Amino acid sequence: KAGVTQTPRYLIKTRGQQVTLSCSPISGHRSVSWYQQTPGQGLQFLFEYFSETQRNKGNFPGRFSGRQFSNSRSEMNVSTLELGDSALYLCASSLSGQANQPQHFGDGTRLSIL
Amino acid sequence: AQSVAQPEDQVNVAEGNPLTVKCTYSVSGNPYLFWYVQYPNRGLQFLLKYITGDNLVKGSYGFEAEFNKSQTSFHLKKPSALVSDSALYFCAVRDGGNTPLVFGKGTRLSVIA
User: Fold this and answer.
1) % of chain A surpassing 70 pLDDT
2) Does B96 touch chain A (CB under 8 A)?
3) B5 in reach of chain A (CB within 8 A)
C-alpha cells in the first residue's frame, strides 16, 4: 500500500511570493492534517480536513490556508511568504481522524524562503 | 489544553544497553498517547500507541512504552539499543474529543557503538 505522498520535496521561494503544497493520503484515508516543523518551534499543527471540511485549525495567520478534494487529496497554500515560513511542512493521514487512530506521515516538503 | 513535555533534548546510550526516552503529558480527559520516530530528511514514523488497557504497550522495532496514570507519564523503552535506533523521537497526546494531536519538542537519541 502506498504511503502518504507529498510534492514537491523541496521548494525555494522569495519573500512575498505564494506557494502551494500537495498531499496525497494513503488510499482509503479520509482525514488529512498538516504540520509545520522548525528547529525552534518543533511540530506545530496547522489544520485538519475530513471529507472536504476543515475540522480543526491551529494558531497560524490567515496567510496559511488549505483545502481537501473529493478524492481526499489535500493542498495547503501560503501567501505573501515571509522568511519565518521556512520550514518542513508535513502532511499526515488517518482513516477518519478519530483520536485513537495513529496518523501516517509523508516525508514532507522543505520550503526555503530567500 | 493538552500538552506534552519531553524533558531531555538529547539521550546518549551505548549499543546493547537499555534505553529510555521520557515523556509526561497533560490532558483534561483520558489521554490517547503516541510515540513517533523521525530519521533525517524523512517524515514521522508511528511506533506505538496507548489508548486503553494494559499499561505496557509493545510497538515496532522492539520498542515498548509504559503508561503511568498517577505520574502522567508515557516513557519509551527498549531493552537493547541499536546504532540504527539513533533518531529524533516524538511523544504526542490527544484527548478523546475533536482536538488536534499535540507533540512534544522531541528527544534526539544517539546510540554509540
Assistant:
1) 99
2) yes
3) no
Q: Which chain B residues are within 8 Å of A4, Cβ to Cβ?
A: 43
- β-bridge pairing B87-94 and B32-38: antiparallel
> Which residues share a beta bridge with B75?
B66
Q: What is the mean pLDDT of residues A101-111?
A: 96
Nearest to A20 by CA among A38, A33, A32, A7: A7
Minimal C-alpha gap between B42 and chain A (Å): 5
Express as a percent the part of chain A with pLDDT over 90.
91
Contact predicate B34/A99, CB 8 Å: no
How many CB pairs below 8 Å do chains A and B form together?
Answer: 51
Torsion of CA B11, B14, B16, B21, to 10 degrees: -10
Whether B70 and chain A come into contact, CB under 8 Å, resolves to no
Question: Which grid coordinates are listed for A15?
Answer: 519573500
Q: Per residue in A9-65, pLDDT tens?
A: 999 999 999 999 999 999 999 999 999 999 989 999 999 999 999 999 999 999 999
* A65: amino acid identity, one letter: S
Enumerate residues 6+ apart whose C-beta is below 8 A from A70.
A52
Whole-number Å distance between alpha carbons of A71 and A64: 22
- CA–CA distance from B46 to each of A95, A114, B35, B64 (Å)? 14, 33, 6, 12
Chain A hits for B36, Cβ within 8 Å: 105
**Which amino acid, B70?**
S
Do residues A81 and A15 make contact, with C-beta atoms less than 8 angstroms apart? yes
